[in-house]
């Protein structure tokens, strides 16, 4: 058997579980590098040292090196610290001025914070004793890494052979800033961007910079890659021209979940553990979840869970338009999440109107996993979804998904067929409240057909949802990128 050639890669993300997390990116950034390391790749992670890192892991961090760089007309000092966690080597860019703050995101100097992070990641590399052949960048917050590598660092021998992969996880967040802020931070005349096609309707778009500057572009499911490569500006996606430009270099690789981290047979966050061979423990979790949230304890009523960031792309407007019909049925609805304040108001209002069959709580990890385990049906009505992690976790915990047919939801949930008994969930095509309501009612009908239901639950729990296949595809893509001559200029 021929040995695989070594691949050295730096995986750069602003979120990595358990150090900082607001969504699925943090899980991908923790568990994909771990899966690649298990396949013989030397993949290491780099992220900002946010306040949460200092508060939870200060005793484990080891100082590596200090550095300085020029930004926004001044010299900024920084440092690199490291630790090993969960099978990964993680490097933290330390700069209290930018990262020692109450929140991870949403500050007035957001562009400056993450341009610093991009430049610091490249500046720090020679000091940490690791020379990757590939830098894997994730979402707009790392979009300037390919740009800086091409335009500033590549002339130095250390960086000469490095390549970049830019992965799109969430098109909703693109990092759009006024040109004045961009020129002040970067110290470049605006004509530099307009002459190279990097301007964005008179503004700066960090995701566009990443898409056009990287050697290859990827996203987190094959169906989503197809969807975004066919978009047009008329579909309210102004990045469409950039995506069409890179269509031949755009790859869709499905996300997975870590099967050890997400295992109902060993998960200590649950009320009790269970597996596909004995679901009595899932019934216990359901009862305890109802008691915890103050819902009527009824084993016969199906619990529908929605665990999500509360934002418009998640299709919550469908629930807003149909909850008054849905909650007339004999069901219980549990919503766990946080995000746009309007949805906090909405779900509190629904809970007040239907106190016997609806509960809403802000996101907390233990509660979320107890809901995954205690619920019967998992609702994910996303308007758009690059891949989705939640439906995978739901299936792993034996909670049958109800999803809209978009992006990675198409790739991960097989529609239930009543005639053949095959399938792992309920799907619906159109983003319409009545279509969604019909899908939910089909799920409830399936729940009451116990023989058919048990078969679907068993199939969900035995699906191959881990990173094995996807890590193999990423390794092949890494090898392809590293082996190719650079042909894309930006």
TrEMBL record:
<dbReference type="Pfam" id="PF00534">
    <property type="entry name" value="Glycos_transf_1"/>
</dbReference>
<protein>
    <recommendedName>
        <fullName>Glycogen synthase</fullName>
        <ecNumber>2.4.1.21</ecNumber>
    </recommendedName>
</protein>
<dbReference type="InterPro" id="IPR001296">
    <property type="entry name" value="Glyco_trans_1"/>
</dbReference>
<dbReference type="GO" id="GO:0009011">
    <property type="term" value="F:alpha-1,4-glucan glucosyltransferase (ADP-glucose donor) activity"/>
</dbReference>
<keyword id="KW-0320">Glycogen biosynthesis</keyword>
<keyword id="KW-0808">Transferase</keyword>
<feature type="binding site">
    <location>
        <position position="21"/>
    </location>
    <ligand>
        <name>ADP-alpha-D-glucose</name>
    </ligand>
</feature>
<comment type="similarity">
    <text>Belongs to the glycosyltransferase 1 family. Bacterial/plant glycogen synthase subfamily.</text>
</comment>
<feature type="domain" description="Glycosyl transferase family 1">
    <location>
        <begin position="299"/>
        <end position="442"/>
    </location>
</feature>
<comment type="function">
    <text>Synthesizes alpha-1,4-glucan chains using ADP-glucose.</text>
</comment>
<comment type="pathway">
    <text>Glycan biosynthesis; glycogen biosynthesis.</text>
</comment>
<dbReference type="InterPro" id="IPR011835">
    <property type="entry name" value="GS/SS"/>
</dbReference>
<keyword id="KW-0328">Glycosyltransferase</keyword>
<feature type="domain" description="Starch synthase catalytic">
    <location>
        <begin position="10"/>
        <end position="232"/>
    </location>
</feature>
<dbReference type="GO" id="GO:0004373">
    <property type="term" value="F:alpha-1,4-glucan glucosyltransferase (UDP-glucose donor) activity"/>
</dbReference>
<dbReference type="GO" id="GO:0005978">
    <property type="term" value="P:glycogen biosynthetic process"/>
</dbReference>
<dbReference type="Pfam" id="PF08323">
    <property type="entry name" value="Glyco_transf_5"/>
</dbReference>
<dbReference type="InterPro" id="IPR013534">
    <property type="entry name" value="Starch_synth_cat_dom"/>
</dbReference>
């Amino acid at each position: 058997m021929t040995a695989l050639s070594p691949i050295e890669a730096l995986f750069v993300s602003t979120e990595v579980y358990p150090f900082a997390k607001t969504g699925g990116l943090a899980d991908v950034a923790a568990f994909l590098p771990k899966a690649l390391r298990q396949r013989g790749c030397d993949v290491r992670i780099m992220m900002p040292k946010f306040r949460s890192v200092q508060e939870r892991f200060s005793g484990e961090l080891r100082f590596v090196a200090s550095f300085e760089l020029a930004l926004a007309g001044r010299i900024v000092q920084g440092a690199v610290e490291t630790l090993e966690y969960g099978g990964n080597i993680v490097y933290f860019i330390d700069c209290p001025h930018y990262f020692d703050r109450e929140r991870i995101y949403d500050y007035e100097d957001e562009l400056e914070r993450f341009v610093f992070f991009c430049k610091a990641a490249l500046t720090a590399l020679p000091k940490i004793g690791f020379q990757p052949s590939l830098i894997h960048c994730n979402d707009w917050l790392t979009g300037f890494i390919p740009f800086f590598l091409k335009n500033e660092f590549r002339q130095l021998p250390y960086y000469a052979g490095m390549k970049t992969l830019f992965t799109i996880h969430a098109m909703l967040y693109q990092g759009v800033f006024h040109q004045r802020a961009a020129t002040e931070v970067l110290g470049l005349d605006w004509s530099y961007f307009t002459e190279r096609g990097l301007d964005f309707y008179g503004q700066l778009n960090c995701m566009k910079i990443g898409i056009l500057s990287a050697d290859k572009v990827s996203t987190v499911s094959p169906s989503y890659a197809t969807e975004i490569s066919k978009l047009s500006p008329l579909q309210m996606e102004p990045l469409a021209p950039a995506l069409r430009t890179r269509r031949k270099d755009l790859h869709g690789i499905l996300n997975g979940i870590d099967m050890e981290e997400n295992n109902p047979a060993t998960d200590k966050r649950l009320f009790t553990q269970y597996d596909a061979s004995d679901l009595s423990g899932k019934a216990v979790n359901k009862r305890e979840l109802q008691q915890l949230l103050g819902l009527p304890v009824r084993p016969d009523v199906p619990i529908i869970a929605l665990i999500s960031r509360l934002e418009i792309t998640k299709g919550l407007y469908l629930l807003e338009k149909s909850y008054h019909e849905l909650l007339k049925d004999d069901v219980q609805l549990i919503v766990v999440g946080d995000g746009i304040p309007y949805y906090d108001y909405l779900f509190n209002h629904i809970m007040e109107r239907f106190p016997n069959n609806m509960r809403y709580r802000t996101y907390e990890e233990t509660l979320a996993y107890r809901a995954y385990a205690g619920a019967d049906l998992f609702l994910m009505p996303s308007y758009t979804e690059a891949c989705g992690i939640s439906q995978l976790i739901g299936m792993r915990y034996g909670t049958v998904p109800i999803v809209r047919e978009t992006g990675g939801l198409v790739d991960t949930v097989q529609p239930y067929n009543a005639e053949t008994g095959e399938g792992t969930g309920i799907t619906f095509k159109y983003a319409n409240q009545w279509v969604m309501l019909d899908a939910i009612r089909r799920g409830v009908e399936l729940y009451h057909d116990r023989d058919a239901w048990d078969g679907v639950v068993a199939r969900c729990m035995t699906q191959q949802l881990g990173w094995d296949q996807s890590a193999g595809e990423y390794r092949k893509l890494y090898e392809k990128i590293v082996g190719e001559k650079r042909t894309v200029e930006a």
